[in-house]
């Protein structure tokens, strides 16, 4: 990951958003039958992602969950390094990262919706590889975000009913 990318994506006091001009963008959402606090507890435990997310083989947060924290993870055979850029506990988390010719911005938001939580995730991918494989990358990104949301929903709803892994 280049220093220029880090400097660009880490403006002090600003909310990180996806790059709406990136060649691959996806936005998915789901309603989870649990409170935002319950969803946040599961989703913000980066070290525990591989326990419930079928696509993540391992994940390790270096230090405490905070802006600027780095985490390394492996998803679908790819090694990724990400930096938390945006953090509002219980409401929003966003990170940037890079791997194999691609740069990503990934945002998650949680909103109370009746007795449940409306979870939205959106991600943009850019870089030479993404531009080259634009259509395939869009489809892969949509599928991946959808699977993550379903896995998150299943884990949170099982946990809130006392049936955690």
Q: Describe it for me?
A:
This protein has 165 residues and is an alpha+beta fold. It is built from five helices and seven strands, in the order H-E-H-H-E-E-E-E-E-E-H-H. The protein has one domain: START domain (Alpha-D-Glucose-1,6-Bisphosphate, Chain A, domain 4, 2-Layer Sandwich). Helix 2 packs across helix 5. The N terminus is likely disordered.
Task: Give the SSE layout.
Layout: H1 3-9, E1 24-32, H2 36-43, H3 49-52, E2 56-62, E3 70-75, E4 78-88, E5 92-99, E6 102-113, E7 116-126, H4 128-132, H5 134-160
Antiparallel strand pairs: 1-7, 2-3, 3-4, 4-5, 5-6, 6-7
Helix pairs in contact: 2-5
Task: Name the descriptors.
seven-stranded antiparallel sheet, 165 residues, alpha+beta, globular, 39% strand, Alpha-D-Glucose-1,6-Bisphosphate, Chain A, domain 4, disordered N terminus, 5 helices
Structural class: alpha+beta
- The total of helices stands at 5
CATH superfamily: START domain
**What is the CATH topology?**
Alpha-D-Glucose-1,6-Bisphosphate, Chain A, domain 4
Q: Strands across the major sheet, in which order?
A: 1-7-6-5-4-3-2
**Which residues form runs of ≥5 with pLDDT under 50?**
1-13
- Give the % helix: 25-40%
Biggest sheet: strands, sense, closure?
A: 7 strands, antiparallel
Shape summary: globular
The second-level CATH architecture is 2-Layer Sandwich
Q: How far is the first residue's CA from the last residue's CA?
A: 35 Å
**CATH hierarchy, class:** Alpha Beta
Elements, N to C (H/E):
HEHHEEEEEEHH
Percentage beta strand: 35-45%
The average pLDDT score comes to: 89
**Total beta-strand segments:** 7
Return Rg in Å. 15 Å
Domain unit count: 1
């Amino acid at each position: 990951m280049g220093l220029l990318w880090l400097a660009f994506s880490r403006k002090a006091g600003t909310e990180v958003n996806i790059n709406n001009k990136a060649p691959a963008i996806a936005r998915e959402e789901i309603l989870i039958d649990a409170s935002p606090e319950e969803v946040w507890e599961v989703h913000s435990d980066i070290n525990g992602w591989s326990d419930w997310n079928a696509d993540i083989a391992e994940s390790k947060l270096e230090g405490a969950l905070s802006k600027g924290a780095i985490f390394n993870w492996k998803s679908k055979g790819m090694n990724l390094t990400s930096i938390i850029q945006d953090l509002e506990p219980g409401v929003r988390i966003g990170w940037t990262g890079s791997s194999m010719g691609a740069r990503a911005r990934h945002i998650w938001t949680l909103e109370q919706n009746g007795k449940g939580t409306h979870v939205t995730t959106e991600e943009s991918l850019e870089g030479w590889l993404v531009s080259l494989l634009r259509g395939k990358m869009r489809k892969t990104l949509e599928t991946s975000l959808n699977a993550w949301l379903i896995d998150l929903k299943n884990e949170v709803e099982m946990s809130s009913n006392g049936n955690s892994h």
